[in-house]
From TrEMBL:
Signal peptide: none annotated. The chain crosses the membrane at residues 673-698. The keyword Transmembrane applies. Gene3D superfamilies: DD-peptidase/beta-lactamase superfamily. SUPFAM superfamilies: beta-lactamase/transpeptidase-like. Keywords: Membrane, Transmembrane, Transmembrane helix. This is Beta-lactamase-related domain-containing protein. It comes from hydrothermal vent metagenome. Residues 425-699 form the Beta-lactamase-related domain.
Amino acid sequence: MRIIFMVFVCIAVLLLASSAHAQMLFNEDFQDGNADGWQSAGKGDIRLTTYADNVSMRLTRSASALIGLRIEGPSQVRISATFAAMNLEKNDFCIAEASADSGTNWTEILRLEDGADDGLTLHKGAAILATKVKGGPPLLIRLRVSGNNKDDTCWADNISIDAIAEPASRAQLSAAFLTGTDDLLLPLPMHVYATPDNAHPPTVKIKGRLSFHVPAKTAQMKVLRDRFGFTDNPVKGLGTPPDFDIGFVQVGERIIPTKRGLIRTDNEAWDIMIEPGRIWREDGDMGFNRAAIPFTLQERNANCTHNGVLSFLVKPDGQTSRAAYQIVSETCIYFQYDMWGTGNITYSPGAIKNADQLSLAFSQEQQNKLPTRPISALATDHPGLDASAFGSPADVSPEAMTTFGVLIDGVHYRGGCETRYGRYPFCENLIIPSYSLAKSIFAGLGMMRLQKLYPEAETALIETYVPECARQGWKNVSFGNALDMTTGRYTSTKSEADENAAVQDGFFIVSTHQKKINRACSLYPQNSKPGTKWVYHTTDHYILGTAMQGFLRQRMGAEADIYRDLLVDPIWKKLNLSPVSYKTRRTRDALNQPYVGWGLSFLPDDLAKITQFIALDHGQINGTDTIDTHALRAALQMDAADPGLFAPGKDFRYNNGFWAWDAGSVLKQNHPVWVAFMSGFGGISVVLLPNNIVYYYVSDNNEYAWAKAVIAANAYRPFPKGPSQ
């Protein structure tokens, strides 16, 4: 056997921007009679052989040959190779493959198997591989036989690497456009705002303030749905993003805003949330670095959420181009639009308070995310689970789906993130609204935390802590009754009739606490004894939140806050949720009263962690109860003595802020099978399956359908028999 020593061949390449042709970087045809640089391994023989004046490398049995090539210059290369073979049997192969990450992952160039082994014909294969522009590991090429007999033979030849030339500059959002004055006529494919595969590391280290403003003349808006007639008499700012002026710091290639979560603005239509973006360099950007930042507009005083992204150029000295932006997706059933245009953006380098702490907190946030896999991996990782049942287009219209996911065995499988112009480039930073998920997450878990601290809270009376309700004759309505929506005060038991009356009354529109609480306490008359009749009311949870605030302040002081002190500090932060989850919608006045029944925002990882805390960890953190776990068990239909009232028919129950559905009929059982879930306005469902699988989706076409997921989950991992069955 010929001994072949491995060396790294250095290839420095200068690609001319004007060249449209690939340039050859490496070619090995063995015609010189040597195989310098190739290293042998495995069982079998490796040698150069000649047939009809052609020299090739012969490999037998399970031998392999490897070469490492140091390539600097191109961001993509095309690798090709040829093989002839003889005596291959079933499960025998000739394989040529390449790796750009020191052998962690291999890309197959060519595979030859039984049936293509006449010993004469050369078969050709090729693959395109992304490579580090500078400073990365060597490119590895490996030729190998996967056989078990000494006559299993492969002949390798004509191994070549060609650089794929890059264009001088991008075609869309080019440096010429961003530094020019042309209008952005239409929204662009979302990938234009993403970091390309051939990006270079940034030369700018962002630390300072970014200010953004969109002049009305450069803003464009196309309304796709307007059920409430917002555009009939538009408020100021409806067609433009709000201005912002926020500090940023940089961690690697990520640029981090100093303020995350809901930011109130002076815009009469929209508040804003800004998430971590990215910065990089591209060829053809005239010495600038390029940045992209995801942002979200949320309807003022409401929860409708519209996700966007902006991009601009910046130099180390602070010089910037203008910014391009677009918003082409949302979670909002009644107002949908595309918004796009250009705006003025300035960067002012300077000191940022607590910059090191902000950078460290972001790094820890990234490290503490749940393991995440694409939804396409669900079937591979869990054979036997019908993955098509989750996010099924038969259940939820694809154009209405914001995102969806499955949490199983500690892994978060994610799907969705599509917009009307392609996949959202910051899927991990896609902000999703809670709507009425807050009735479970804020009102439900908040009360459970309050009961853990003060067991008397469940039976405390609303009239003791809410004088506006006392004046309206509320008597003997407990905190628990308000959480269960069994106050005894209602006008109609018809589904959604009272809730629609609250919309017509203006409860959701008024922005101060006094106006909201006056409406909430006076809207419905008493018609039954508290605790005996369920009627859906968001107002009940606003009243409950007001009472909880008064109760907590009597015990913890005048500055106590039910969201911060019951959920954010003791639970959210210990679960390593993102700063997006730390804020909630509040009244616009000095009282700053949380909405409680709606108005939260999350990243997908936040929602997955909260469901894990509820359904899998049963309210414990590091083995310690953080909430009243008896109340949680009842909410999840795990306490036969406290299942809650039917709501509104025999197939649904409501208890401690959580819904439950009897899936017995769809599972063809002769007994109830209660599945707890959370539900949000417009088409949001979080299903807490009894077999420790969680399925959620966020959509906006009023579609609430997940029976297929229940059937699939039960078929894969049968539900245990519940206590109420």
